[in-house]
Amino acid sequence: MAELIFYFGTMGSGKSTLALQIHHNLANSGQNGLLLTQLDRAASAVSSRLGVSEPAIEVHPGLDLYRLADDVIAEHGSLEYLVCDEAQFYRPAQIDQLAEVVDLLDADVYAFGLLTDFRGRLFEGTSRLLELADQRQELQVEARCWCTRRATHNARLVDGKQVYEGEIVVVGDTGGHEEGFEGADAEVTYELLCRRHWNQARLT
């Protein structure tokens, strides 16, 4: 019986690496599937910080994931799985579509994402995944805060200063920029912190 499985963790916990490994193993076993992502550090690809990457379908907000899967079945005769990276960015309606892929098309869905944004709040896609998933698995590779405690929060830094307000989706980690800070583009990066130092905005 097909399942919707949600793997979650902080940045640096190995989500994309595991997504690529699952896709590789299933494809090598002869199964037909799709690799999907949204706003990865590499455009239209799933990329791991270890340097491994694979081309992927970019999930834009208007993409109907159930129709995509159904079209693959119509064209190729089968679809056994979807591997969905950066699923925290998917719209709630798209998460519902992934559940329909499992229930109506009998294809497994492996979704990977962050739990919370830089404000410490659940992403909309994550919230819906937690509500619908058959299995919820926290990744056991523990990223660490600079103090060596377990990192639990993704802090957004704008020109090196932690912020708690702003657009929910701003891609950093690759030299992202955000408008509106002192009237100019500002460099956006992210840092992993424990809850204490995230609350204190303490970076060292």
UniProtKB/TrEMBL annotation:
Keywords assigned by UniProt, alphabetized: ATP-binding, DNA synthesis, Kinase, Nucleotide-binding, Transferase
Gene Ontology biological process terms from the UniProt entry: DNA biosynthetic process; thymidine metabolic process
Top-level taxon: Bacteria
UniProt GO MF annotations: ATP binding; thymidine kinase activity
UniProt-annotated catalytic positions: 86 (proton acceptor)
Known EC number: 2.7.1.21
PANTHER family: THYMIDINE KINASE, THYMIDINE KINASE, CYTOSOLIC
Name of the protein: Thymidine kinase
Originating organism: Actinomarinicola tropica
